[in-house]
Amino acid sequence: MLEILPGDSFSFTCTGLALPGNVEENLCVKAYRLLQEDFTLPPVHMHLHKIIPSGAGLGGGSSDAAHTLLLLNDVFDLKLSVQELQRYASMLGSDCAFFISNHPMMGKGRGDLLSPAEVTLKDKSLVVIKPAIHVSTAEAYSRVKPAQQTTTLAEILKQDISTWKDLLVNDFEASVFNIYPQIGEIKQELYKQGALYACMSGSGSSVFGIFSNEVDLRNQFPGRTYWSGKATA
């Protein structure tokens, strides 16, 4: 959760999970400083309640940055278009622009060349498992070996979800599972529990499963952070 209020001077506070580094390194602060270069922004008090852990592969910091831009645009009536907000977001990080538009998107280039994805998970249930493992994004990218595609992502997403298991592959999994086999075991357990599709999220360490019905698998994953919910789109 992100809150921005008027302030006598700029300040940033955080509750929930601890943030690494100093305040000026936080992406929310960087987003404010970036817009401040082009607009006369008054001082604000910014408060972030962080619940998505770092090193989870869930884009927690990137989504915080994107929503800072969205909120500043709204609060100060900057009249920035979605495309302009995405341009600013891409200056903060490769996947930040993805979170500007709340729709399924496919990313190319650094992840900031976006196009709509024709896919829906409406009425499906999702489970996300985060083991007590921090996967370094830099390390994951240094080890990944992209596979040669025979079917485009757009074509795969148009197919029934039952076909994704063999077609929709996260290339990070091979090297990450080799170093952290526990993550691969989570994926296999999700399939054992009836997942239609399971995959590591981004560069890890979280793994998600998509189910046709609501499930409660907390007993199967003791000691791991667990989220679940129903897709609405």
Task: Please write out the topology.
Blueprint lengths: L1 E5 L4 E6 L10 H10 L7 E7 L9 H16 L6 H11 L12 E4 L4 E4 L8 E6 L6 H7 L9 H6 L5 H4 L4 H8 L1 H12 L4 E4 L6 E5 L13 E6 L3
Parallel strand pairs: 2-3
Antiparallel strand pairs: 1-3, 4-5, 6-8, 6-9, 7-8
Helix pairs in contact: 1-2, 2-3, 7-8
Brief account:
The protein has 233 residues and is of the alpha+beta class.
Distance between the termini: 21 Å
Number of discrete helical segments: 8
The CATH topology of the largest domain corresponds to Ribosomal Protein S5, domain 2
The amount of helix comes to: 25-40%
Mean pLDDT level: 92
Return Rg in Å: 19 Å
Describe the structure.
This protein is of the alpha+beta class and 233 residues long. The protein folds into 2 domains: 2-114, 2-Layer Sandwich (Ribosomal Protein S5, domain 2); 125-230, GHMP kinase, C-terminal domain (Alpha-Beta Plaits, 2-Layer Sandwich). The protein is built from 8 helices and 9 strands. Strands 7-8-6-9 form a 4-stranded antiparallel β-sheet, with helices on one face. The chain has a 3-stranded mixed β-sheet with strand order 1-3-2, covered by helices on one side. A two-stranded antiparallel sheet has the order 4-5. Strand 4 and strand 5 form a beta hairpin. Helix 1 packs parallel to helix 2 and helix 2 (60-75) packs across helix 3 (82-92). It starts with a strand and ends with a strand. The relative contact order is 0.14. The mean pLDDT is 92.
